[in-house]
């Protein structure tokens, strides 16, 4: 029997090039092409952050590569070769392509994990559904990591980042305790609440755990990057939160986007450009924690979850 175990590492996906933005956006909109105005608006956002390579592609590639190396070094994996395959939700190589590649290599057992720590049926749930359907076609036995939002190494990596930026605030003359820490994540349509989705609670749990570990009390949670659709999305949005904080005379804000693990559009544009511009108008100082990208503690979080999931099917 082969000692190879496939690891399907799933991520949101980003266009390959500027010409690819329309196809990418159409995929996100489940086959409906965006209007010219929507396409122009998204293209402009990418133009503001892309210097050749789309950042999310670079980070996903490097996370998949680093995870494979981290797994190879884990003693619990001795005698087993974990082979990582990339599967993207909205771009090539798609989730189904990743599973096809595993089948082509003769993989019979695999673990699926998403580069996003919090479970929602609209995010992780849909990644898993697609991977499972394809794996069944190929007769691959797969288990999945559904969330890892309280993994001690993830919490440590995030709290170290929060503390490091609070140090910077202090060095710049701010009082540590008066910096308001805003934990944030991608908003989703409000209907997920009625559906009993664990996403909002898991995000609050991560925020509380990081706040405890970093020893901070001056914090709150806010949403970001909501879509423009007719149905309401979870709020308050970070841009509105900044307006409220300004009225409360808050001068220093540290954003910790704990729902994301990489530098990409929603961080590099929505926070670093859009939110920073609003903060400037309001005469507030806004900083953001560094993204995890391929931080060793994050890689160890993923590798621990993969191994535990594999042990369950082994
Ligand atoms: O850098 C990049 O190229 C991609 C950045 C990116 C990430 C990301 C993560 C999440 N999304 C989630 C939910 C939704 C829902 C819709 C939606 C729409 C977009 C659009 C772009 C986009 N998302 Fe995204 N998301 C990223 C990018 N997202 C671009 C389309 C334009 C726009 O609305 O701004 C609405 C779909 C619809 O119209 O029906 C819902 C969630 C995450 C975090 C979990 C994960 O990574 O899977 C949830 C990164």
From TrEMBL:
Involved in coproporphyrin-dependent heme b biosynthesis. Catalyzes the insertion of ferrous iron into coproporphyrin III to form Fe-coproporphyrin III. GO terms for molecular function: ferrochelatase activity; metal ion binding. The lineage of its organism: Bacteria, Bacillati, Bacillota, Bacilli, Bacillales. This is Coproporphyrin III ferrochelatase. Pathway: Porphyrin-containing compound metabolism; protoheme biosynthesis. Fe-coproporphyrin III binds at residues 12, 29, 45-46, 127. Signal peptide: none annotated. Pfam families: Ferrochelatase (PF00762). It catalyses: Fe-coproporphyrin III + 2 H(+) = coproporphyrin III + Fe(2+). The keyword Metal-binding applies. NCBIfam families: hemH. Its EC number is 4.99.1.9. Transmembrane segments: none annotated. The gene is hemH. GO terms for cellular component: cytoplasm. It is found in: Cytoplasm. GO terms for biological process: heme biosynthetic process. Keywords: Cytoplasm, Heme biosynthesis, Iron, Lyase, Metal-binding, Porphyrin biosynthesis. The keyword Manganese does not apply. Fe(2+) binds at residues 186, 266. Belongs to the ferrochelatase family.
